[in-house]
């Protein structure tokens, strides 16, 4: 038995025209939690795909040594037989199957082709208990929250006698509470002798949980740092990732705040399917010209629901309340009415709700304000391209041309396209829902700069975020939301993470 | 200092293998355009193949005339169908709707004694109503188009048989029949001068002029805005190819007995008009946006219900037009007319590169796909291939065409991974 569970030696992988990995080495000690960090496109996912057999042996150069033996996986099943299990960022549960069925999907408890339901359910309960999840194994996967789905994925991995568990951005979609639970679970697995590789953008998590961290940049290994002695700071890791010292993670800004632009009063929204459930409860908020206002809340507090119901009632039923724009009461029953009133909403889930991924950059940018490029229903294609090119330059969208397909861009560049789209619509109020989710550190800084510029132009900006440091870094004022109610309004000078968290977890009396 | 050195190195590097690199570049460029031009190449290959297999019978002037007239109603349906498919729907009812409208036009003329032109306009209105009916269920009630139009396929087939009392109607007025089989201005020039049909020659020249002028103007406009990214040689190749195709078609039709079929003019105008609608109007954009990502379109302020509704109304009108052309050509409206038209139209759209998941597809692609099916049908008939083998071969062509497209897409996305 060697002290290293896994050694990847001089791994290189090329795609036509791109060298994705070049002589990457990775050594993971037995029973440790090993983090992998790097900007988007640094090669983390490619490396994990090589390891798990998605890219079979022969399509890359270099050796993978698992438990002292050189292995050559043909596919994912092959790597799973050797105890390497990967949990992808996009969860792979089948929504209409039960939790138990999902756990044993592809690995069914059966004799002679017939499922043994008793064993399936009994073992599922056992595995669910191990991951600390208290749900009925017969519930459909779609009926439990994202955090619980993530735990089901881990239960599924445990059902396969995993030795090396790879978690790709496991907490990207989780709130703080679920993240904490998941990280606790990873710690527990370590005690059971399971080695974990964790890919994450959240450096505080890595510091909290990982024993060591390997940093990739541009397809090469930069360094491996031990996190045991505590001398490695987040800034030190960031320096490795971006290859430069970030003096500040948030750009400087001097706010110039004007008159009130949008005010929402007594805003109540019911769940679209279960009409009796109140999702937003008598909320009130306002935002002024040139001001950046944050909305902080845990997952399920009703942040997105609040924003989308304001944006032309694109979420919810039985919506009541009043909305004032520049002091005048307005109604916006549809998205196009909201856009006409100068309200824009950039979604948290840009792939599902924000972009037409099979269409190109210029057509995505023009899609919310096509009217500005038309006369009598005809689109002026030349002007459309010029407009898109202006945004490509000013927003620093990295793409070969404005005719590039948005689905092929990185997360940060996709987000810049979404922002360009709403900037072109030239709204007075811009609601940004998780504007930096899944975006690497360097691109985040650029997004913050853009947000600051929007505010400097006199736009009223509302920012929804799960990351408190982000809100504290860019906002002038922060509302906290808990169970659909605005529980506090905190000026930035008085805001601390502790104080916000206290209001975010305030329960109904 | 350093940078100049590097530049010089690069310049030296590129000088020696320049020729080889240029050829490789051209090859890569062609491969990148393969998805765009593949469908046209396929049509070209199939035409050449059958021209050889039939000993030249395929491109006999009169046969070319026939191919156009025989397939015109499928091509009309394919225009509407590809728009529906781009939006992410499907329409299984078009064959039944075409039959129903054909039958209604017969009733209007025979039983209600309406003048032929009133009957034509009223028939198109019937088509619009049928489309509005189906569009209502799809757009505003939210029932999947597959179900609504499967029901429509049965409902309108049933209604056709009911209004016809299971009897065919024949003896349509000659003016009505022009749309299906008539030629454009057959006696315009005195017969003595008719070495070629001069009307056809004139039309061909106009079409060629329009193509060249519009392409050159488009390129000039793009160049003025500094947007041109298409290599000059490629642009010229495309343009020359287009001119040669129109020239060949003009000469063939001009020496056919009929000259230019009226329905070809109708088709030509519709193809140009609908291509413009899909590429250059807000409505066309909304169709692509709706098919590409429904939620993103809605959250961008697109009234997707209205888009869906209008698409089905449009399909109804085009199905009505196809029914009128078909009825006019056969001089008969029968209870079984238009059977399986929907499948030919759907096949045309998919062979022409439309995506099953929506968001992708072009009018010109669907027309080319329809022509591939049409040439296959006609060529095999000329060779005396039985209907059994024809079906088999057409099925395989559909499968392979879409398979080729999927293969190409995968190659393209792998290259980017």
Topology:
The complex is a heterodimer of chains A (509) and B (417).
Chain A: E1 4-15, E2 18-29, E3 33-37, H1 44-51, E4 61-66, E5 69-71, H2 76-81, E6 84-87, H3 99-103, E7 110-111, E8 114-115, H4 117-130, H5 146-158, E9 164-168, H6 176-191, E10 195-199, H7 203-209, E11 212-217, E12 220-226, H8 234-242, E13 260-270, E14 278-288, E15 292-297, H9 303-310, E16 317-325, E17 328-330, H10 335-340, E18 343-346, H11 350-354, H12 361-366, E19 374-375, E20 378-379, H13 381-394, H14 411-424, E21 429-433, H15 441-456, E22 460-465, H16 468-474, E23 477-482, E24 485-491, H17 497-504
Parallel strand pairs in A: 3-10, 3-11, 6-9, 9-10, 15-22, 15-23, 18-21, 21-22
Antiparallel strand pairs in A: 1-2, 1-4, 4-5, 7-8, 11-12, 13-14, 13-16, 16-17, 19-20, 23-24
Helix pairs in contact in A: 4-5, 14-15
Chain B: H1 2-15, H2 18-32, H3 34-53, H4 61-86, H5 94-110, H6 116-141, H7 145-164, E1 169-170, H8 174-181, H9 198-224, H10 232-254, H11 262-280, H12 282-292, H13 294-298, H14 304-330, E2 332-333, H15 341-351, H16 363-383, H17 387-416
Antiparallel strand pairs in B: 1-2
Helix pairs in contact in B: 3-16, 4-10, 4-11, 4-12, 4-14, 4-15, 4-16, 5-6, 5-7, 5-14, 6-7, 6-14, 8-14, 9-10, 11-12, 12-14, 15-16, 15-17
Question: What structural keywords apply?
Answer:
heterodimer; A: 509 residues; alpha/beta; Rossmann fold; 2 domains; six-stranded mixed sheet; 24 strands; 28% strand; B: 417 residues; mainly alpha; ABC transporter involved in vitamin B12 uptake, BtuC; 77% helix
